[in-house]
Amino acid sequence: MSGRSAHAKAILGQELFSRLSQTKVLLVGAGGIGCELLKNIVLTGFGDITLLDLDTIDLSNLNRQFLFRKKDIKQSKALVAAKTASAFNPNVKITPIHANIKEPQFDVAWFKSFDLVLNALDNLDARRHVNKMCVAADVPLVESGTAGYLGQVQPIIKDRAECFDCVPKPTTKTFPVCTIRSTPSQPIHCIVWAKSYLIPQLFGEEEDGGELDEAEKQGENAKEIAALRKEAQAFKAVRAALRSSPTGDASSSGPSAAKMVFGKVFNADILNLLSMADMWRSRAPPTPLDFDKIRDGTFSLNRPQQNGVHANGSATANGKAGEASGSGGSAITEKLLNGSSSSSTSASGAGLKDQRALSLQDNLELFISSTERLAGRLRAGEETILFDKDDDDTLDFVTAAANLRSAAYGIPGKSRWEVKEMAGNIIPAIATTNAIIAGLIVLQALHLLRRSYHALRNVHVQFKPSMPLSAIAMCPPSSFCGVCRDTYTEVRCDPARVTLVEVVDGVLGVGAGDDDGERREVSVYEDKRVLSDPDWDDNNDRTLESLNVTRGKFLSIVDEEGEYATIQVAIGVLPPNHPVDAPALILPSPLPKPPKKVKPRAPTPSTPVSSKKRPAPDDIEEIDAPAAKRSKTVADTAAVPFTPSKKRRLEEDGLIMLDNAEEKIEEDPDVIEID
Ligand SMILES: Nc1ncnc2c1ncn2[C@@H]1O[C@H](COP(=O)(O)OP(=O)(O)OP(=O)(O)O)[C@@H](O)[C@H]1O
Ligand SMILES: [Zn+2]
């Protein structure tokens, strides 16, 4: 037994080592980093570990999440990891929880029961949530992440160091919509088009014609609206064919649904674009594709830029794509563009079917078969189908449609494997990076427990052989952070019995005698929903429950003058022994005293924007988070713009609406411009 801990004791010292066995640590995530980290902290001597994960074990996890075996597939990650790792040290208590960390029972009081939180998550939303809960509960957090060969560990300790949200995070890759719509120059543009535009158009929800009527009423450009109507009409016919034609015999003489789709998007739409001569003065025009000629092998793409350079001289991604995938650029490009048969490309090995380069003919056949498969699913009762990288039918469709579009625009094609990576935004997980990061997390956790704050470091694992690790001293919190610069407090209450105004006035101390009875002008939010403002008090007498403000949520009390910091009121539950006849509300004592605010220069990530005067809505109003500026109109160079709901969908996929390619995306930390 002593042999087991001898090294840890020698390294950590008796005092810290003893403390570890009592330290209550929460580990969120039992995936790639989580499994490594759980093993590390068990072996280091942590004695009281709560392990939480919402997921079950998948076959694809087994290559790196070594606490799991094949027999564990479909079991809870938290439960299996806890069981496996418990065997590493008989003195450890691991409490597994199979749940989402965002569930209401994991409220601020629950977070306060831990001495330390370790994040091993894979998404921004959950990371942000844990960051805020740790700031609210004043519990130190070690945040981490890996992406391929890159990794980062960030210790977070309230008021001493930046929190996770002090530095806004780039969330999505974005492309100007006109690039996607009519002037693609890279394979990714065609992949995004197939995945985010074509699939929803054909297999997604039907466009609501009402949106166009509404836009017309709002006085939007009549020409644009007419074009949109025409476009909607054209897709309507294709959608109907997909849903009604008999199960496809694509080779039959009548035009199959697949042929109709093909004719619209790879021929008619391109012909339409070509008719706008102005568009093609400075860039190579696309070539309309011919279904029958590709099928019978007589189609040829007479493009001037098969060497990967557009007619205007600007390089396309051809060379780069070839190098990056190791597939030898121009030879493949030739093959892809000229429609040579797939049989000649099998040199890369039959076992690597997904990695094989596809000829134009291959792509057409894949397009037909995947369209028929998807249409068959619609006819079998599936209402809508959207892209999912693990859904073979949609992946085949996106691969084929993207490659056909690429061919029309003189862009090299991609293998199914590459399309899966690109469309699914997949960065391969690397076990070694996870292992390095998990080790670094423990080192930072130990600094936190020793209170050696000067030793804390932001550590990056980077792709630089000369300096694989970089350790940066901690930065103080950003004065403008919308999370850690707020003042946190907790109200324990029964949301079914307390009203909004009771909580807000209670927290502000209205009537408590210390503010001359003068109530500060405030707006109240739950997340981004406005619940009240100085001119709108309709919700004041509603219960928190009726406003859906319940355990685990926060009420944000924002000073209307912007003079004081925002108060974040965490909603907790009444203690079990709370007398039934007592008020259903326990206010914090002392009441929070928010400091004077440093005036922000720009909106911070999560501070709700101050409300404008507005009519009282029937129900709660959603306001948009401050996000990348989007222009109202869409590419006038493109043949057809996007309806509002299409725009929404594209925006969710990380696309930004720009008037034209020349317009710059307004500087926004949440946006990475790719094009
Ligand atoms: N909100 C959440 N609550 C609890 N656990 C979460 C939450 N969000 C993510 N997780 C867990 O965090 C872990 C992250 O691990 P990892 O990055 O290895 O992802 P994975 O899903 O296991 O693998 P991959 O995404 O590569 O298939 C996952 O096990 C996931 O279930
Ligand atoms: Zn912060």
TrEMBL record:
Pathway: Protein modification; protein sumoylation. One of its GO terms (cellular component) is SUMO activating enzyme complex. InterPro entries: ThiF/MoeB/HesA, ThiF_NAD_FAD-bd, Ub-E1_IAD_1, Ub_act_enz_dom_a_sf, Uba2, UBA_E1_SCCH, Ubiquitin-activating_enz, UBQ-activ_enz_E1_Cys_AS. Residues 339-351 have a biased composition (Low complexity). The active site is at C178 (glycyl thioester intermediate). One of its GO terms (molecular function) is SUMO activating enzyme activity. It comes from the Eukaryota. One of its GO terms (biological process) is protein sumoylation. Residues 295-352, 588-640 are annotated as: Disordered. ATP binds at residues 29-34, 53, 61-64, 77, 122-127. Residues 11-452 form the THIF-type NAD/FAD binding fold domain. Residues 299-317 have a biased composition (Polar residues). Residues 353-420 form the Ubiquitin-activating enzyme SCCH domain. Zn(2+) binds at C163, C166, C481, C484. Keywords: ATP-binding, Metal-binding, Nucleotide-binding, Ubl conjugation pathway, Zinc. Heterodimer. Belongs to the ubiquitin-activating E1 family. This is Ubiquitin-activating enzyme E1-like.
